[in-house]
Amino acid sequence: MAHALEPQAKTLSEAGGASLYGKLTELDPRMRILTVCLFAVVTVALQTLSALVAAFSVSLCLLILSGLPKRRTLKRMAMMDGFIIFMLVLMPFSMPGDAMFTVFGFPASWQGLWKAIEIALTANTVILALMVLVGTMEPVTLGHALHRLRCPEVLVHLLMFTIRYIEVLREEYLRLRGAMKIRGFRPGTNWHTYRSFGYLVGMMLVRAIERSERILSAMKCRGFSGRLFLLQDYALTRRDRLFAVSMCALCAGLLILDHL
Prior knowledge:
Layout lengths: L1 E2 L25 H17 L3 H18 L3 H25 L4 E5 L2 E4 H24 L5 H10 L4 H30 L8 H31 L7 E2 L7 H22 L1
Parallel strand pairs: 1-4
Antiparallel strand pairs: 2-3
């Protein structure tokens, strides 16, 4: 099994998705993974508000350079905030400090508010950088890059096959749900509903196992031996090295700014 890695020969592109290739997507995928991991570690280590604002500005600059649609990308990033909004709202009431106001006798502290802002900036900075540098990769490219970075082949295979066949399982689920509706099934809060959904999950598992066995047999017939082969090898260019040096310098600057 081999794959071409040029942008013009994508293997697992989204159905109906638009092809977006900015300046950052032309960089070596390995360098993008390593730099975003370094940037994420540095961002999490920052403690001052000024350094976190600077780190978020770096992520915004990466978004501009990537050529991704800014409004849609920021909207997707904001969806992540829905998972932590309750924590951010409760943070001022859970940390002791100087009270801003009280709600039903519970004081909200300034220290808790600043801590919530720091957590929000850290999370959004890391998520935005991951979306720009890693989220724009094709799954096959990401898998090959992880393989070149000496990640275990089993984990790389699991990643690639999960991304490839999760939509197939979704279509199978929709077919089974459609068959249940045709037979008059209407979900409710009763044992019949719970039992029916249990049968649905069981049937999904059975069909997934059968499909995986057919896929494995087809792959073996095509010569798959458990190894990943590339039609094009990776090679670092001057642009990749310049980007890596720039990101390292920015990370060092953020750490210096954090300690001022």
